[in-house]
Amino acid sequence: MNHALLKSVIYDQHEFIRDFQIVPRDYEFEENGNYVLVGLRRAGKSTLLYKIVLDLVASGVDWEQIIYINFEDERLSEFTVADFNDLLSVQSEMSDKKGYFFLDEVQNIDGWEKFARRMADAKEHIYITGSNAKMLSREIETTLGGRFFAKHITPYAFGEYLTACEVPHDEPALLGTKTNGKIRAACAQYLQYGGLPESLLYKAKREYISGVYQKVLLGDIITRNSIRNDYAVKILIKKIAESVRSEISYSKLQKTLRAVNVSLAKDTISDYIRYAEDAYLLFHLQNYYANLVEKESYPKFYFSDNGIVSLFLDRKESVQLENMVAVALTRAYPGDVYYLKSAKTGIDIDFYVPSIGLAVQAAYSIAGDAREREVGNLKKLAQNSQGAARLVIVTYEEEETIIEDGVTIEAVPLYKFLLELESGKYGAAY
Prior knowledge:
Distance between the termini: 48 Å
Strand content: 15-25%
Largest sheet: 6 strands, mixed
Structural class: alpha/beta
Order of helices and strands: HEHEHEHEHEHHHHHHHEHEHHEEEHEEEH
């Protein structure tokens, strides 16, 4: 690859990073570790790399030691795995000191993992980002061995969102009337528009989020997987959005699609959903009570960011609230969040974290009939299970302690639940 072009790309990136305003995030990195950062497009992976770069420079590292390559730069459209060696050559030309290599959106280059392994074996410092879960598949983990730390980077958690919005959220702020009001107002925005970091820069947030979604859909799902029927994928994602809160089988999705004249085989539907999950657009939860076959056949799907699900379900607050609780719980307890549904006992619980015995219902309000339904389900769980130690109903703004038939249930407003969850108040997973 032309060395002058590579240097131009690197120096342009240096200039960009120098001027970038960093918002602190709740991620820590080992000083001498190599990292692979993965997650939804525009979730903030690159910004975390910028922070690492600036910290290195502040510690005395020269800018000429920083080799930062963004593989979405159109100037690198012809870059292949054979060109990685040129990065080593360019680094030695720029500095006689040890280099620090930052490879952003590296999944665009087939074979990148072999170069990453070689770099780690050579004791080079290397940081990688990507927007595809396949980067952390068993095959890649085997290839990389134990040479890299892996981190899943999500859009802003609520506390990070408040920090970015310069809204204080310590104990005095939570207790103060005016500051608490600002936190609640920010929560309403967060519920509607989610936590994609750059969305905060725009007044037209919906248009920005729509652009990110289109990039994920067209680039990370359709183009990357060579899908010809892009219309079918778009309708499938829309129908999944409309099913948020409900368990749904591939057979049911197939029938739903047929109703709008879209014909897909169940295996194809399964593949398309897997592609969407690989791109971190969607994730699913399984029924803790079900056997293995049912777990795979009747998942509940959620979107990784509320701003994206709101594109399909604008102002459907009850759905948005449940999606947000799902996102927050899976961020706090990855791999340990389920739903509960049993025909035998009649129990129907939105979320269950077995490692800490936390059962959560998501209800925009518990006024009227909703109170009996949500409280009743949690009471059934308490009476039929020894594992549920803490019972919570997350509402939009209602708060109370409910005690019925010897069962204690906490009704907690969304903003408070999110902050308490992030602070570890509900306990740490195994």
